[in-house]
C-alpha cells in the first residue's frame, strides 16, 4: 500500500511478454559521442515496436507495474476525465504524460462551469486547469487540460469526476450543460444609432460607426442600418422605434452617455420603453455603458471610450449577447471584479 492507498505491485517481466505493461522506471540510452538520454519514461506503456529498442539497450527484462483492479494509469485517467468533462464543439488531444487537452472546434464563447471545476480540483491527485468562462475562443484554442499527478491513481477518483459532470447534464432541458463547452455566435441584425450634433452636422467625421461595425462583424453579425441624429431626446426615440420596425434584433446607440446637458441617450432609451438592466457598468473603461432590453431585444448605450479603447465593457457583453445570453443585473455587478482594464 502506498501513500495514495494503491496496491499495485512491481513485477520483473521478460521484454517479449511486456507488451501493454507499464514501465516502472525511466530507461536511459547511451550511444557514446552521440546521445545520452531517456529512451522511455516511467509510466510508458510498452508496445510491440519497443521490443527491439529495449533489446538494443541490453534489456532482456524490465520492471513493470501491475495495476490492481481498482487502479488506473495516468493516461487512461486523464482521457476518462476529459471525456466526462467535454461538451459541444470540443475535441480532445491524445493523452501524453498523463495530460489530455480539451480544445475548441469553433470560433465561439467558452462556457466553463467553475463550481464543478473547483469540486474536481478539491478531490486531490488530479489537476484540471481551464481558461475563464465567457472567453471568446478560436478553433483549435485550448479550453482545459486534465492531468493526473501520480502515475497511477484510484478508479474511484474518475468515478467521482464522472458523477460531478453528470450532475450538470439534463439532456431534455435547456439547462443541459457540460462542464466545458463552446457556444457558437448567433447571427444578429444590428441597428446602430449615432448621436451627436457635431457628427450630424458634419463638423467631425464619424469614427464610432466603423469601430462598432468591425466588432459586430467579427462575431458574424451585421449592422443592417446606421442612423445619425442630433442630441434631441424625441428624435433619438423616433430612431429607436424606426430600427425596431426594421426588425433589428439588437440596437446600439453611440455617444451622449455621460453627464453633459447634451447627453440625451440614456433618457431616450428609457423613454422608448426599454427595461434598464443597468446604466453604469463597473468596468473601466466602459463605466458609462447602459444595458437594457426593449421588447426582449438587447439595447445598449455605448459611451465614447468604446470608440477609443480596444477593450471595454462592450467587449465583455457583446460576445455574451451574440452567444444568446440574456444579461441580468448580477452579470453587470460581476464585471467589477477584474474589470479595471486601465483608464
Ligand atoms: N463629469 C463627467 N465627465 C465624464 C464622465 C463622467 O462620468 N462625469 N464620464 C467620462 C466617460 S467614462 C466617458 S466614456 C465619456 C462619455 O462620453 P459620451 O458617451 O457622453 O460621449 P460624448 O460626450 O458624446 O462624446 C465624447 C467625445 O467623443 C466624440 N464623439 C462622440 N461620438 C463620435 C463619433 N460618432 N465620431 C467621432 N467622435 C465622436 C465627441 O465629439 C466628444 O469629443 O465622458 C467622460 N466624461
Ligand atoms: O464609460 Mo467611459 O466609457 O469608462 O471611458
Automatic annotation (TrEMBL):
Q: Does the keyword Magnesium apply?
A: yes
What InterPro entries does UniProt report for this protein, alphabetically? MoaB/Mog-like_dom_sf, MoaB/Mog_dom, MoeA-like
The pathway entry for this protein reads as: Cofactor biosynthesis; molybdopterin biosynthesis
Q: Which Gene3D superfamilies match?
A: MoaB/Mog-like domain
Keywords recorded for this protein, A-Z: Magnesium, Metal-binding, Molybdenum, Molybdenum cofactor biosynthesis, Transferase
Q: Which cofactor does it need?
A: Mg(2+)
Per its record, the protein catalyses: adenylyl-molybdopterin + molybdate = Mo-molybdopterin + AMP + H(+)
User: What is the name attached to this protein's record?
Assistant: Molybdopterin molybdenumtransferase
